[in-house]
Amino acid sequence: LISQAEHDPMAAAVLVTDSEELAAATEAELVPQVAATKHITDRIEPALAGRQSAIVLVSSIEDGLKVVDAYGAEHLEIQTADAAAVADR
What we know:
By secondary structure, the chain is mostly helical. It has one domain (about 1-89). Helix content is about 55%, strand content about 10%. The chain has helices at about 1-5, 20-35, 40-50, 60-70, 85-89, and strands spanning about 15, 55. The radius of gyration is 14 Å and the shape is globular. It starts with a helix and ends with a helix. The mean pLDDT is about 95.
């Protein structure tokens, strides 16, 4: 999320997950990670705080696929136990 946000204050950084634990851990870890980076106030904080960025919690991988299909991300990373199978859907 941070590496995407550092490009531009209007950059979209989105995490779509079906894991409440991952969503909470990511949100908690963003605070110290952002504080340790350059370009905090001019790019990263505005990008992450903007309405174009979010942590989206979904009920299932299928619901996550619907979100990312509707969102139409320019860059997408699939991090699952079987990313290739999910990508084929």
